[in-house]
Write a structure and sequence with these properties.
Two copies of one chain form a homodimer. With 383 residues, chain A is mainly alpha-helical. In chain A, helix 2 runs parallel beside helix 16, helix 6 packs antiparallel against helix 16 and helix 9 packs antiparallel against helix 10. Strand 6 of chain A pairs parallel with strand 1 of chain B, so a sheet runs across the interface.
Chain lengths: 383, 383
């Protein structure tokens, strides 16, 4: 079978940020178990941990969070640009445009990329992503210019507040918090690796994040929770779900949201996010979404020995938080910007360009043919 | 000594597009020698060759060129956005913003990435890059809204026409043409590799190019011709240049524009671009630039056995074409978009995600510490 992953198992650099599945079912950020972190921390705390390598004290966390709140303001020329982006735009292209635009404003011509400058750019960008995305979303989809003021100090609550314009259950914030933490970091996945390839040339912070967003946009990477929800919403109840999945498996169809290229036993994030999904579905008129998700999870385990990954119940959670499907992957961007930032800083410190070789499979050297002597050919053959 | 390149010599995929330095001093695009191509082709022809894998007939080239001319129009919302970008913006961040903005307009939600669609996106983008960049440049730097109409059919001439507003020597077009061809493609360099990492996730064309631009912006990659000109302009004549370079070499300073990580004998592009630089300097009041460049080239060869690469005389050429230094790397973007497009199409066909591993050098699993019990530490130690 043709391998579907290139550079699989090849070390492309050193990292001190995270380990994924060392024992097949574990995840550590900077040496701390993901279960401990998600139980005790807010997203800002995890962002601090990832970027600076240590857990903050209360004072450090308060200062750090205050800095993030203070930098939420959108530059007026960015606002005018957001109003030019149509409703039909893919939100991931919008996210990339926000980042590259911020690069135009925040960068100077000097090319010094020390950790302090990179951290400052990271904080500015992470503060801006939520209001910029939701300003564009509300303006393009509903024609309203929302106020960006909010009493919500944390990114989790701020996102829900701007999206729902105050109309949300305060309990939802915890779920949002857990989601952001669980999506924050995952070693050398394709988007993080893209950010490191760009950082390796000594490029600026915003250029690296824009590239990472480009990679996360791909259907083989960030879009999985959107696909998971589509599957779950297909079934009105668990009996129909089980029956349909069984026949899909017989036809050897792939079910998005299951298995993982690095975890061999299970995805440790699944158990955590599942609890939040279950809590949200209790007493919820739309609770069959959780039941459907769970019966498919059990079926996949029994029939294929495949475990649900983070995306599976994230889809249930986001749906219960009334988050539009098209904003699922942009939330992933906000969360992963924490991890990307840590990797960009690390790559700059490493000071190495990432430049592999290619295996040449093309034509041997051949005689040049002048334009008068060339033959036309079937376009379908040479494209 | 610590290696300065990661993944050096490691095959990250197959390619049929280009070979670099197989014999230490040679470059082939799709099997054709770079010398033959530069002598006989225009940039559009090389773009066709790289992207489609064959040299076009006259009719094919005419059709292809016509398509590029027809697609030069800038969407009105892009124009409004360009007017929001300040003069102080780095032109490479501007280029990235142009690309991500075009991604917002041109992409649909479907995720089919066949060669035909990718080629169409490539042609649209390559047609837009020149007018968008120069519209921004003229508006932000001179406050004028230029007309984008031009009788110049080729990208080379169109660039010079929009930049100089008709006031340029028609002989300059050939030099511009050669530059675009020589910069068009170079195997798995860092920016091309970034575009392939992004393409590997099945992301859209614009997302891939935006990431590639991010990588090319880095001072270890695309910015070398700008640095080369700074060195050359430091000296009023060749005697002073030689003297100064000798003492720089004694102090073991690095001279940008010399040596190459892949070519071991010489850069075959240097000889070609040098001819254009020489021709432009003949009878030019600013001809000492060429003389200075040449004496430094000779000195580097004699003293360090290091050869000039493409960037060295490109700097002389661009300077003689009255191109502002800050537009040097954006020209590289326009040229390399041809090569990037070919690689993105190839990576999509290959249908592999690029996901290496990391060598973990961080802390071992450790006990979580609650926020009340954490100790503050010197920020300089953990950043």
């Amino acid at each position: 079978m043709k391998k579907s992953v290139a550079l699989s198992g090849v070390h492309a650099g050193n990292t001190a940020i995270c380990t994924v599945g060392e024992k097949g079912n574990d995840l550590f950020y900077r040496g701390y178990k993901i279960e401990d972190i998600t139980n005790s921390c807010c997203f800002e705390e995890v962002y601090f941990l990832l970027m600076k390598g240590k857990l903050p004290t209360e004072e450090e966390l308060n200062n750090f969070s205050d800095q993030l709140v203070e930098q939420r303001n959108l530059p007026s020329n960015l606002v005018r640009t957001l109003e030019q982006l149509p409703k039909s735009a893919h939100p991931m292209n919008v996210m990339q445009t926000i980042v590259s635009f911020m690069g135009c404003i925040e960068n100077k011509f000097e090319i010094i990329n020390n950790a302090e400058k990179l951290q400052n750019h990271s904080k500015r960008l992470l503060s801006v992503l939520t209001p910029a995305l939701l300003y564009w979303y509300q303006f393009s989809h509903k024609g309203i210019r929302i106020s960006l003021k909010s009493s919500e100090k944390r990114i989790s609550g701020y996102f829900l507040d701007l999206l729902h314009q105050g109309d949300f259950d305060t309990d939802w914030v915890q779920t949002m918090e857990a989601s952001l933490i669980l999506y924050a970091e995952h070693e050398f996945n394709a988007s993080t690796f893209a950010s490191r390839v760009i950082a390796g040339t000594n490029s600026d912070f915003f250029s690296c994040i824009a590239g990472a967003i480009g990679a996360l946009r791909g259907s083989k990477h960030g879009g999985a929770n959107e696909e998971a929800l589509k599957i779950q919403e297909d079934y009105p109840n668990k009996n129909l779900a089980k029956k349909s999945i069984m026949s899909k498996l017989k036809r050897k169809e792939i079910i998005i949201g299951f298995g993982h290229p690095v975890y061999t036993k299970r995805d440790p994030r699944n158990e955590i996010i599942k609890k939040y999904a279950k809590a949200l579905s209790e007493g919820n008129p739309n609770s069959n979404l959780f039941e459907v998700a769970e019966v498919i999870e059990t079926t996949m385990l029994q029939e294929k020995d495949m475990f649900a990954n983070l995306d599976w119940y994230s889809a249930v959670c986001f749906s219960h938080l009334n988050i539009p499907v098209k904003l699922f992957t942009p939330i992933f961007v906000i969360a992963r910007t924490a991890g990307w930032s840590a990797h960009i800083i690390e790559q700059h410190k490493e000071n190495k360009i990432i430049r592999p070789s290619a295996n040449y499979v093309g034509p041997k050297p051949k005689e040049f043919v002048s334009i008068k002597e060339r033959e036309s050919s079937d376009p379908s053959k040479y494209t």
